[in-house]
Design brief:
CATH class of chain A: Alpha Beta
Largest sheet of chain A: 8 strands, mixed
Structural class of chain B: alpha/beta
Helix content of chain A: 25-40%
Number of domains of chain B: 4
Low-confidence stretches of chain A: 249-260
Oligomer: heterodimer
Number of strands of chain A: 13
Mean pLDDT of chain B: 94
Radius of gyration of chain B: 27 Å
Distance between the termini of chain B: 65 Å
Strand order of the largest sheet of chain A: 2-1-3-4-8-7-13-9
Strand content of chain B: 15-25%
Structural class of chain A: alpha/beta
CATH architecture of the largest domain in chain B: 3-Layer(aba) Sandwich
CATH superfamily of the largest domain in chain B: Pyruvate-ferredoxin oxidoreductase, PFOR, domain III
Low-confidence stretches of chain B: 1-9, 623-628
CATH topology of chain A: Rossmann fold
Strand order of the largest sheet of chain B: 11-10-12-13-15-14-21
Helix content of chain B: 25-40%
Shape of chain B: globular
Strand content of chain A: 15-25%
Order of helices and strands of chain A: HEHEHEHHEEEHEHEHEEEEHEHHH
Largest interface: A-B, 60 and 74 residues
Amino acid sequence: MTYIAKPRLHHPTLTRNKVGYTRRDYEGAISTLCAGCGHDSISAAIVQACWELDIEPHRVAKLSGIGCSSKTPDYFLGNSHGFNTVHGRMPSVLTGANLANRDLLYLGVSGDGDSASIGMGQFAHVMRRGVDMVYIVENNGVYGLTKGQFSATADKGSRSKRGVVNSDSPIDLVSIALQLGATYVARGFSGDKQQLVPLIKGAIEHRGAAFIDVVSPCVAFNNHAGSTKSYEYVRAHNEAVNRIDFIDLAAEQTATVAPGGFVDVPQADGSTMRLRRIAEDYDPTDRIAVMNTIAERGARGEVVTGLLYVDPAPQDLHAHLNTVGTPFNRLSDADLVPGQRALDALNRALR
Amino acid sequence: MNAPLDARTARTAATVRPIAALNDFVVKFANVNGSGSASANELFAKAILRMGVPVSPRNIFPSNIQGLPTWYEVRVSEKGWLGRRGGVDMLVAMNPQTWDRDLKEIEPGGYLFFDSSKFQPKEKFRDDLTSIGMPLTEICNATYSDSRERQLMKNILCLGALSVLLGIDAAEIETLFSEQYKGKERLLDSNVKALALGRDYATECLEPIGLRVERRDAVGDRIFLEGNSAAALGAVYGGASVCAWYPITPSSSVAEAFTSWCKRFRHAPDGTARYAIVQAEDELASIGMVVGAGWNGARAFTATSGPGISLMTEFIGLAYFAEIPVTIVNVQRGGPSTGMPTRTQQADLLACAYASHGDTKHVLLLPEDPTECFEHTAQALDLADRLQTPVFVMTDLDIGMNTRLCRPLQWDDAHRMDRGKVMDFEMLESGRDFGRYLDVDGDGIPYRTYPGTHPTRGAHFTRGTTRNAYAKYSEAGPDYVYNMERLLKKWDTTKSLVPQPVERRAAQPARFGAIYFGSTSPAMDEALEVLEEHGVPLDTLRLRAVPFPDAVKAFIDRHEQVFVVEQNRDAQMRSLLVNELGIDPARLVPVLHYDGTPITARFIIQRITAAAVGGVRAAAARRTGGAD
């Protein structure tokens, strides 16, 4: 961790976005994670994505579970409310929070232990329900805070720093999210910000359950030879299916006609997601084909990254429940309480 | 219709007089689950109620959908006693499986009504009962061709016969039919015909009996309602917009009733819903959603029972420590573990009062009947916001799943939701100091802010880890102690905000007191009157909440000994009184009923009489220097 306090004064020429904030306004407290931790790069990518999308920091709610990854919401968006919940249960808290006020942006930050081990059930069900959120798993395959035990995403045969070989099959959260109905599924790498920032931006704009699995090496416990979640291993085995540029319609009308190497995926809010195809014939809107690709590449030991799947017309939990447009936390007595007259009628009927 | 005639005409032995009772008896229906008996039984109870005579019905049912035995016990009591009396004056034996044990429960001189279509050997009967056989199956088989109709109409035929035997006004039943089958003329017609068929048979073939219902005006403006439905309505009136739940007996009907009430009361003119109900994947998720919604400023609740509480405890600890409003309706059933899912108990008191690891204390509300289920659930949502903590509504199966005669529901239209201490944009903008866990008013309750309120002020990181008064992570001893002491101060503040206990003084000066709560109320009301007649006057205090307001200690201090009547094995409320108020345990005498059936007045009378007499003897022995 760093011991140098962040400066309070910022350079006056720092660029402001459309809502008048500089990038610094999206930062949080100083990280207490290990120097070089992949998670800090993800925090930085979140900061950049929110700044670039002109999101007012206080309109974001950050929720997490327990673990190194779950500590990170303290380290970005300091003017947002955050909630560090209990281990593996962030999804349910996020679901409740989302129901209470549909107008905020919900950012769930979790880890592989938090989501794939103790929280597997809640991870599965929050995807099924289509909660409108950005759900990021900072995936390093180990329990960092308790010093290096395997998590459920550790690959079979992967070797821990203490020399233990993992004999359990890994859980691939991307495949599971796809199967359970997440409508935006991506995988990034904490060491590749160029790819990660647009992935996060796309997830933020997506009006449904958006999931990003970010491989984020643990420099303390899972960055050695024999680990399949180390910087070196991931760089060697990373197979990006596409590069995405997020296009805000209002800003870049001209870019809608794509040259041969691009595919534009229109989004429900009218904006467009541009995918630069690297893999031939990769169609991110064909869920079954995507699942096949991931399985095939996975069998070859490749970590497929990029925007893997997107449903251009997603529906979220509020749509499923046909809820009123006003956030629940602003409903008044008149909206909620039927009053004595209704009781008079009821009392009569109950005799 | 030949062989059973013997049984039908069987009379009681000359030595035992048949019971004669007017508007004061117990009829028990022994049925097979899933046979359609439930609605006919309810009609029976409701028809008597419409005649102005109070009744209290109780379902005694298995954890089963079809096939296992189920019972419906109706107590008719002109005096208005609504507790279970104990004993049965008339058994309607419709289940051969349970015949032997059912017959044992009938009081000497009582009545046995049975289906005489199938021969029953003479030794299967008791000669101190009046046995009344009616060939229900034969009549139905002769009248109806559809097998389902044969089964269902048997219940209505039976109802018809009983109405003649007991003097229940057929017009009341017909009115109930017409309300129930409004717009379903064919069903209405067939039910009316079946009723007449039963009545005709009884009038022609059955002899009058000693149990009678006569019209009175003893019901007044009271209503007939189930506790779970009432609690759900309380959640609507309390302003709950989020309900997250997981099905579990006996609480499922709370969420189901909330769904129906919301469909009726909570749709905006454009049809959109001012509520969200999520059936979660488990109780951990249901409480998690409630915590999330509460954190974000919506009123939210869950309903569950014992095993659900066990699963929720980690989140309950988080809500206590991070100070998030949460309302939990706990419809208690028999524990531990899966226990007796369809039986009643008050055995989750300690599990809820101190739920979760570390030092925790939780607010419990203790409704006595459906009306209080309504009131307490609505109030719980206010208290949860005011106190920023979990609030439990501790009802039970006896209240929750039985229809009970109770006060009509009332609402003060001037009441506004108490959202507690929330700093809004203007307050933050004005520059007021905001410390999420700072005790600014001296009542232990800090201010909170809803996410998204102000661009630069009021945001903080909510967590289960320790922190200072400004919500910054801190494991410093003084920060931790400040917070824990403040939570205790909040606990003290709570005492004056919760429903206060109800005290009742005996007509004559009483040496003994009795403390009770929840579903024990009706049995206690009745026991008190009898005990007073027996020369054991008792002052009573009905608890309505934990933490205990000051009046509770004062009550105990005024009495030599205090009986604590509760429905669990380990005297959990007594432990709470000892623990929270520092009472000498010797002064609190436990009276415990925990076999899964609702406590009866008979039980209370017997235990308290024995203990009171024993206590007097022991005290006399002490005075004379003798051994206890």
